[in-house]
Amino acid sequence: MPSILELSDEPKYTIKAVSAQTGVRPVTLRAWERRHEVLTPHRSENRYRLYSDRDVAILRWLKDRTDNGLSISEAVAELRQMVRNGLWPEAIPTTPQAPTRPASAAPEVYTQQLYKALIRHDEARASEILREAMSSYALRPLFEQVLVPCLVQIGEAWYRGDIRITTEHFASAFLRGKLLTLLQTYPVRRGNPFILVGGAPYEQHELGALMLAILLRSEGYRVEYLGPDIPLEDLVDYAREERPALIVLTATSEESALAMRRLQEKLSRLRPTPLFGYGGAAFLRMPDLIQRVPGVFLGKTLSEGADKIGDLLKSTSRTVR
């Protein structure tokens, strides 16, 4: 992402438009300007406030800091110190909006286009396709009908020897970067149910877990994404300190799935005891693993997993850590 300083300072947005883009109410924005001198908006001929892309980025950054527990005065002081040191923060990515127009192509069309761009190592074209798909579909169909089928195609092409492992790694790294950026567009909501999401021990495939983390954060949960190959002892120690309501791990191999067998037992010794859910391709290929891994199997799809998690958390009063 560009730094805030790199963005245009041309005044063009009304306070209503800025509020819609940032989630900062007009009355709050005026108070920030008055009490903390956060911004000095341009005044149009009719005396309306007008804000620039840089102003919007500053407000998004300040709101992100306050969403993460700082007071507005602390956030403003932090920003000023960074600016004095010549270290403008990076702009916070924009949270995707719900599609407002019919999709210009069916999901399978985007899947094929994205697949072809990725196996050509055409990063610019893949980014363009992904942007268009994101503007056409909500997160669940985007993930389940575009990205997951694309990943399956890439994996099958590698298995057949149609593409090199370098191409498979390029595609995975590209999508991982896009998904991490997407995760960071959603605020971390303190006070909401706290969930840890990651990959089981020895698990190197992380995109399924990452997509689930995005879905959960977009639906209002406080989610920490921990990445792949999480050692159980370390995870239990972290859970003892941070007290999550739920831990979710994914596995694509039998080895990774079976490595989770003792996690439920270890977590049961914690007070309060977090819920434990799991999923992933290993359990679809080998359904008998579900009987061998204690915990809650979250279902066959990302949507089933997100819905099951919602049901689990409704049954408990654990909402804050």
Automatic annotation (TrEMBL):
Name assigned to this protein: MerR family transcriptional regulator
Ranges where the HTH merR-type domain occurs: 12-81
One GO MF term: DNA-binding transcription factor activity
TM regions (residue ranges): none
Database matches in Pfam families: B12-binding, B12-binding_2, MerR_1
Domain B12-binding: 192-321
Gene3D superfamilies the record matches: 1.10.1660.10, Cobalamin-binding domain, Methionine synthase domain
Keyword Phosphoprotein: no
Alphabetically ordered keywords of this record: DNA-binding, Transcription, Transcription regulation
CDD domains noted in UniProt: B12-binding_like, HTH_MlrA-CarA
Family matches, as InterPro entries: Cbl-bd_cap, Cobalamin-bd, Cobalamin-bd_sf, DNA-bd_dom_put_sf, MerR-type_HTH_dom, MerR_fam, Meth_synthase_dom
